[in-house]
Amino acid sequence: MEHTETETKLAEEIVDAMGKVHGTHTGFRAVHAKGLCCKGHFVATPEAANICVAPHLQGDEIPVTVRFSSGSGKPTRADGAKDERGMGVKFHLPDGKATDIVSLTLPVFFVRTPEDFLEFLKAQEADPDTGKPDFDRVGSFIDEHPETKQAVTFVMFSESPASFANCTFFGIHAFRMRGPDGGERWVRYRWLPEAGSATLTDEKTRELGKDYLRAELEQRITSESIIFDLQFQLAEEDDDPNDPTTQWPEERTFVPAGRLTLTEYVDQECAPMVFDPGNLAEGIERSDDPILHMRSPAYSVSYERRSQT
């Protein structure tokens, strides 16, 4: 995907700012540095095929590679630390191409624009005198950007998951899907864990150790498949497809879209891969969400830097 000079410059500034917040760690992603990989397959429902003509939504068994991750850019950060978690799914299509769904345990994002995200990152930089973030500076940013409060509150006050297999993952961006009849709908993704939701206290995560999520998943997948059900949340007229800081009402229609079954733990096999929500298949288009459009150039910058080591 080609990026403009302006997009690349802003992406570089954002990745630089991430490094100042999390540290620069050679060979790792700028954020979501700590992760693990699984393989399996996805089978879409007939309802999904009625909504979208994309090849991975027609009901065939599609091989997938999945990366679970913690949100921080620190690859040694404890799994129990306050953080959002991520799930990147790469669908390996019959024609040899791929398409991705990227989702977070956050139901919304922190800001509406890349420029605000850069400012938010700068607000989190450590104070030179203390070596720690200046929470007054972060608080001032939130006061000036009230849309940021929901995501920050979620991160700070949610308990850590007992397993990646117990997380609900939200696709915070909207996509326009074209159906076989030519009709179009705005859709957001949601992955629901078959194992249900389960969390742990901070005390319990410390007891289990800083890599407990990896150990738990590796053990779990040797005895059972890890399953997520994909849902499409369908927008109505008043729902803004371009604002990742707001949730669409839960009263909106949810359509069962498919089942993801993970059967193999492959540790770091997907580490070189890029999971990009802008990597789309036929029949799916991005909204005008500025954060969504900035992710591809930012991922490209991060990938180029970690690949040069």
Description of the molecule:
The protein has helices spanning 5-22, 46-51, 114-123, 135-144, 149-157, 202-208, 212-221, 290-307, and strands at 35-44, 61-70, 85-92, 98-104, 160-161, 169-170, 175-178, 184-193, 199-200, 226-234, 254-267, 284-286. With 309 residues, the chain is an alpha+beta fold. The chain has one domain (34-290): Beta Barrel (Catalase HpII,  Chain A, domain 1), CATH 2.40.180. Helix 1 runs parallel beside helix 3 (114-123) and helix 1 packs across helix 8 (290-307). The mean pLDDT is 96.
> Which CATH class applies here?
Mainly Beta
The residue-averaged pLDDT reads: 96
Number of strands: 12
Order of helices and strands: HEHEEEHHHEEEEEHHEEEH
At the fold tier of CATH, the topology name is Catalase HpII,  Chain A, domain 1
Structural class: alpha+beta
Gyration radius, rounded: 19 Å
DSSP strand content = 25-35%
What best-fitting shape do the alpha-carbon axes yield? Answer: globular
Biggest sheet features:
10 strands, antiparallel
**How many domain regions?**
1
Give the end-to-end Cα distance, rounded to a whole number of Å: 23 Å
